[in-house]
Amino acid sequence: MSQEKYKKHQAQERQIHNFTGRYLGNWVYGSLDGVVTTFAIVAGSLGASLSLNIILILGLANLIADGISMAASSYLATKTERDFYRKEMERELWEIENMPDAEIEEIREIYEEKGFKGRDLDRAVEIITSDKEVWLKTMMVEELNLFLDVRTPIRTGLVTFLAFVTMGALPLFIYFMSATFLVGDSVMVATIALISATFFIIGSSRSLLISQKWYISGFEMLILGGVASSVAYFIGFYLKMILG
Predict the structure, then answer these.
(1) What is this structure's pTM?
(2) Burial of 14 (0-12, 13-18, 19+ CB in 10 A)
(3) Phi-psi region for residue 148, left (φ > 0), alpha (ψ -120 to 50) or beta?
């Protein structure tokens, strides 16, 4: 492989890894919520003994509506964080330009706390404050503890929506296939078994984001999904008994 092709390959690989790292959390979050929410609706509908058509209608309507709501929430949350960062950066820049002595003293205090002394401290302060961009970024991180979110609001919303709809459609698909090819109690058994496996697999993917064993993450998701689905099922069951 030539050096030019190797550099191009590295750039493409870096771009893929950056995208995955930035938005993997949104994908896992949307997937988990999509599966739990949709299966809870399926479970509640089964508890109420609703027909296949009604369950599919309720499930699909919720899938799209909740998916849009989740996407909007992710979009607005990311946008708000970026807007807040920008506002604080503008305020900090104004202070640097209009009150440089006070800001220099703040840099000095920050690096004194880090253990810099004497000439090393003077040199560090001089280097940082000689470049306004470096100075500004240092104040944002060291003084305000703020970091720029490199994710874009549109992409966070889109990734969350796709994850919610894609993974959230699985309970509906599994139930539809079970109801189509099986009869009686076997429909419920097959649906629960397959959805439980889905809960575990998606939950395990959280280990890509956190320092936790994959099987522990899987069981946590399985328990969470199981509790939510059980509550929904019994609510539907008892409401049917009460309302007839």
Answers:
(1) 0.78
(2) exposed
(3) beta
Give CA separation, 196 vs 85, 184, 222, in Å: 41, 19, 6
Q: Which amino acid is at 225?
A: G
pLDDT, tens digit, 9 for 90 and up, residues 52-96: 899 999 999 999 999 999 999 999 999 999 999 999 999 999 999
- Spell out the SS3 assignment of the chain: CCHHHHHHHHHHHHHHHHHHHHHHHHHHHHHHHHHHHHHHHHHHHHHCCCCHHHHHHHHHHHHHHHHHHHHHHHHHHHHHHHHHHHHHHHHHHHHHHHCHHHHHHHHHHHHHHCCCCHHHHHHHHHHHHCCHHHHHHHHHHHHCCCCCCCCCHHHHHHHHHHHHHHHHHHHHHHHHHHHHHCCCHHHHHHHHHHHHHHHHHHHHHHHHCCCCCHHHHHHHHHHHHHHHHHHHHHHHHHHHHHHC
The span from the CA of 198 to the CA of 221, in Å, is 10
Q: Which amino acid is at 61?
A: A
Among candidate residues 75, 215, 63, the one with its CA nearest the CA of residue 155: 75
How many residues comprise the chain? 244
Token code pair at residue 105: 């003293």
Is 155:123 a contact under the CB 8 Å cutoff? no
pLDDT tens profile 210-225: 778 888 988 988 898 8
